[in-house]
Amino acid sequence: MDFIKKHFEKLLLAAGLIALIGCAAYLGYRVAKLSEEVQDTPRLSRGKNKATVEATPTSIYSNALTAFQVPALWQSNAVDPFQTQFVPPPPPPPPTNLPKGLAVTLSRVIRQPFKLIFKSYTGDGENFQIDFLTGNQSFIIKKVGDRIAHRSINKTSDTGFTITKFEKKFTRVYNPSIDVTNTVDISELTIEKEDSTRILLILDKVAQEREPIAVLICTIDNQEQRLRTGGEFSCDGKTYKVIDINPTQVIIEDIQTSEKHTILPGAKE
Description:
Layout: H1 2-6, H2 8-45, H3 59-69, E1 104-110, E2 116-122, E3 126-132, E4 138-141, E5 147-151, E6 156-167, E7 170-175, E8 180-185, E9 188-193, E10 198-202, E11 213-218, E12 223-227, E13 232-235, E14 238-246, E15 249-254, E16 260-263
């Protein structure tokens, strides 16, 4: 026991040194084992389980790079594919039945708005308000059968028309934007002149002249004439009278020779 007590510290130091040597030997073994595994890895990859890697063709990428360096040019085309410019439609073919020796052409046939408009009434049909379409003049006509006119000390205004009939009418109009159906007054007022010209006026609606107007042009001086049926005009030393007007043609008559001509839109010599 005395020996152990005297050399206890030396014995502990020897035991620690032996343990340290053992650890060093184990670590050296593990390092050698790992080195051997690392060296064996390339050999294993060359075995039968190695994955096959195929070469990728590079021609596709080469062509793409060439296309970026030399871009394709747009080819010019006489046709505008996107219609960025307005191309007027081709003119209509000239009429085949042109009047011989006539210097008159039909520009168009129009209908003008009627000069009077029916604005309001009271009750079941009285105190009718009728205004001129242009200007601020109004007429208040008491009842059916009265003339549409003003008579005062300083001024007299007479349209030449008389109210001959009134019909009270209503209709139902659906408004989809607000999902509401409204009742709309479409009452009708018939007015008439002494020459039997009759016009139907609908409440707060603009009417059209009963007779169309032919817009004729004399090609000698390019003067425009606006004429109704029965109107007369002169062109190239001749006088003509309008016999008939419809949307597609006008018939005129040479007053000197009684010869009739049918004028089509654009027809001239």
